[in-house]
Amino acid sequence: MSGKLKQIGLITMGALIGAALTLNYSAIAEREPEPLPIEDLRAFSEIFGKIKSDYVEPVEDKKLITEAINGMLSGLDPHSAYLDAEAFKELQVGTQGEFGGLGIEVGMEDGFVKVVSPIEDTPAYRAGLKSGDLIIKLDDTPVKGMTLNEAVKRMRGKPNTDIVLTILRKGDSKPLVITLTRAVIKIKSVKHKLVEPGYGYVRVTQFQEHTGDNLVAALKDLEASNKGALQGLVLDLRNDPGGLLNTAVGVAGAFLKPDQLVVYTEGRTEEAKMQLSVRRDHYLRGGEADYLKNLPAWTRSVPMVVLVNGGSASASEIVAGALQDHKRALVVGTQSFGKGSVQTILPLNNGTAIKLTTARYFTPNGRSIQAKGITPDITVEEATISANEAGMELHESDLERHLANGQEQTAKPEKPKTDKKDAGKDKSDKKAPFDPAEIVSKHDYQFNQALILLKGLHLLQQR
Fold first, then answer.
1. Which residues are annotated as catalytic?
2. Which of 165, 205, 339, 421 could covalently link to 313 via disulfide, CB atoms 3.0 to 4.6 Å apart?
3. Going along 158-212, which residue ranges are E strands?
């Protein structure tokens, strides 16, 4: 087991790398090669030769082979991809919590770039990009016909340079034209606040290398601010696109008992089969200090509510599913994204790599989240949702060629329902102005409902 766990490694949830991912990082194992399909390879060779001899312009061999590899991987599912040397390097840097770009998680849909989730405190977030937005033009260049990697490269660039995005948004009659200024994205992955005496709020925006340490520091600070143990805690995973798998285990471990199962994975190879529990060798790498060692005892018993929505994906779904299965917390909000597959990074000898889907992950009770997501114990819609916005949340099951759930015929998550008397009424004017310095808004309906639930749970515990 420990040998397998050492292969858990880097994942980027950074700007414009792709839809939310959960990654292993592995060397290519020495296995008996599969027999090659000779007739198909002959057809490939013939097509390669025809392009070289008859295409309207000369094409380099390297470009043809690279595009063939791109097509082979992107045709499998939305998350498998070929990483050239630049993309591979950027993926490795992204987990440090600092990278360049716009700050959006994206995938490909109908030939357009589709926004999965804007990352908090980034240019995309401040500009108001939303889950489900379709990017149809980059500056003056149409996206149609580009691969995701090509679109990503156009959106990258030096900090303080501008790019114009043309966006189709459901419910809007005309495309939106938004100018964004590229920036070095520095993500603060854990935010916290003592919202009132006895009740704390912790928001995890991404699962990075130091998120576990930052979470423990936040919990200790809440205890100090409260001058004692909390009576209730809200863990906010809304619009958290995921991150490092081992960090997700550590975050869940802050609230579960030692040795409790957090997640397991199933794939075709032995390396793809793992069971990850609240054990230091499952959430730490190398000689890292055990950040859970000196955690206050109350964190494993305090009443909890976990907030999720359609932007909660991958590692955030692992945490929510584990806490739900162990009956450690109530999950509140709307159906999560449904990213329940593991991508393994396989480095190649030329400095490039392939990102290959190698496994599905399962909650402790054996639920596959792939293309289904986490179903809240209590569904609470956003109060500001309008009839135009209803149903525009993007989920894994909406993506082309998404991996099947593996357990059942997957139905798409139910779309939010609007009250008939409110149909057609846009209540977005009731939304408080955006304040990037605000940890959690007093106008946040889902959070306020979570706080009410926590107070009720605390009263029940006192009986």
1. 314, 325, 339
2. 339
3. 162-168, 176-181, 183-186, 190-196, 199-204
